[in-house]
Design brief:
Layout lengths: L5 H52 L7 H6 L2 H6 L4 E7 L4 E5 L17 E5 L2 E12 L2 E10 L1 H53 L14 H52 L3 H33 L5 E3 H15 L4 E5 L5 E3 L2 H17 L6 E8 L3 E7 L7 H4 L11 H6 L6 H11 L3 E6 L5 E8 L2
Parallel strand pairs: 7-9
Antiparallel strand pairs: 1-2, 1-5, 3-4, 4-5, 6-8, 9-10, 10-12, 11-12
Helix pairs in contact: 1-4, 4-5, 5-6, 6-11, 7-8, 8-11
Bound molecules: adenosine-5'-diphosphate (ADP).
């Protein structure tokens, strides 16, 4: 039973349960018919007996048993084909018998208040004996009513019921089997898909033939969405690992090259020593930044905290920060102090800092950045406009991808990692917002961050 398939269990259990309910119905029906028929047989026998007694007693006070024996045509008509009547004297000696269709048990002097069922010479009969006095006769009258017809009918009904029960067993097994194949089809599909997913390491897209909108259909849909999400995540992870290892390879090679140069020649040459150490330190700084950004990205993917943050407060903090680091940078603003958004302060700081960093990094003039805040029906829109080099239209769609850089040499020289905008986009999406960009090559860039009020 443990190793049976669900379909087998379903088929057997539905067949057995339908069969047993049908059997129970048959048994109840059989015994009801049985009792009802017995009662009606008894009534017929009792009627005959009553009529015989009435007939005999209506013959007047002087009638003798010999008179009756000579002419019992009328009595014959009262007694039916399956019954026998006999008159006995007080000693139990048979004086008259009408009809020989049915057997009688041996005489005892006990009269019966009700019919008894007897089996005489393999024949089932209803039997009753009463005391009888009429004319000059005093003795007993007995009736034996054959139950042969009744037994035949009950046997016939029993056989019919057994045949019907077997047919019902067959039909219920067939119905159970076909019903289970229909209902288990989507579950089988799900099992096959799961097997395929585990063999292919989630690399193939999940699809099902079952398209009904019932509970099973919903289950398959949920599984499909879940699996597509899993495969998407795995794909992204693989991509991320590939990109990270690719990005780390170059600085490691540079550091390695310089260290072996130092090992061979530079120990005593101060100039080589200094240059190699500086380059190595620079590369290590780059790696450190890359690691920090990646860690940030990974951390952000797990945690999402929300609080109300005043935008002007964040911008003022940044203005102060840049004044210290890079006095050449001008950040002008036009912000109503009432504007706040539903985002953690550090997250908003990181979004705007990354965008301002880019405005400074990809700029050939003294960086001039303008930050304004507006609102529409749903969102607060923070716009950051710079006077930088701009982005061409065919590259603008790719800049939010991880590790994408427009000009690799330039980006590296400026300390970029290709992760800044993907971090910005991820943060904005995480807080239910959107980001877009408008730019023309040589004409500055505007990034617009849309964040919901609540
Ligand atoms: P990076 O760390 O290299 O700056 P980002 O993801 O922040 O990486 O940016 C991706 C690319 O988009 C950059 O290489 C740069 O060419 C371009 N870019 C981003 N911001 C600006 C901007 N304000 N002006 C011009 N180009 C930009």
């Amino acid at each position: 039973m443990k190793n049976w398939s669900l379909q087998k269990k379903w088929t057997y259990s539905s067949a057995i349960s339908i069969f047993f309910s049908f059997l129970l119905m048959c048994v109840i029906l059989y015994f009801s018919i049985f009792n009802w028929m017995l009662i009606s047989e008894k009534k017929i026998a009792q009627n005959t007996l009553n009529e015989v007694v009435l007939f005999l007693q209506s013959k007047g006070p002087f009638i003798t048993i010999q008179d009756i024996s000579r002419n019992h045509t009328l009595l014959n008509q009262i007694v039916n084909q399956k019954q026998s009547i006999r008159l006995l004297n007080k000693d139990g000696i048979e004086l008259l018998r009408i009809n020989d269709a049915s057997n009688f048990p041996n005489f005892t002097k006990e009269t019966l208040s009700d019919f008894s069922r007897e089996v005489i010479n393999n024949q089932h009969v209803y039997f009753k004996m009463e005391e009888l006095n009429f004319g000059t006769f005093s003795g007993y009258v007995e009736i034996s009513h054959s139950l042969e017809n009744f037994s035949q009918l009950m046997n016939y009904i029993l056989i019919a019921m057994v045949i019907f029960a077997l047919i019902s067993l067959l039909i219920s097994a067939l119905i159970g089997y076909s019903l289970s194949s229909v209902l288990l089809k989507p579950i089988k599909e799900l099992r096959d898909e799961m097997q395929r997913a585990s063999q292919n390491k989630f690399s193939k897209e999940v699809s099902f033939h079952y398209s009904s909108k019932d509970e099973l259909g919903e289950l398959l849909l949920i599984y499909k969405e879940l699996m597509n999400e899993v495969s998407e995540t795995i794909k992204r992870q693989d991509e991320f690992i590939y990109n990270v290892s690719h990005e780390l390879r170059t600085p490691i090679q540079v550091v390695e090259g310089h260290l072996s140069l130092l090992n061979r020649w530079g120990k005593n040459e101060r100039e080589v020593l200094e240059e190699s150490l500086n380059i190595s330190l620079e590369e290590i700084q780059k790696m450190k930044k890359l690691m920090e950004e990646m860690l940030n990205l990974a951390k952000r993917e797990h945690a999402k905290e929300i609080s109300q943050t005043n935008i002007l407060k964040v911008i003022l903090l940044l203005q102060k920060e840049y004044k210290l680091i890079n006095p050449k940078v001008t950040i002008s603003t036009e912000i109503d102090p009432v504007y706040s958004v539903n985002i953690q302060q550090t997250a908003l700081l990181q979004i705007i800092r990354n965008l301002v960093d880019n405005s400074i990094r990809y700029n050939e003039n003294d960086p001039n950045i303008f930050i304004s805040v507006n609102q529409d029906s749903k969102n607060i829109i923070i716009s950051i406009t710079d006077n930088g080099i701009g982005i061409s239209s065919h590259q603008i769609t790719k800049i939010f991808e991880r590790f994408y850089t427009v000009d690799e040499a330039r980006t590296k020289s400026k300390g970029g990692t290709g992760l800044g905008l993907s971090i910005v986009k991820m943060l904005v999406l995480e807080y239910g917002g959107e980001i877009d960009v408008v730019s023309n090559l040589g004409d500055g860039t505007t990034f617009r961050v849309h964040l919901p009020y609540k």
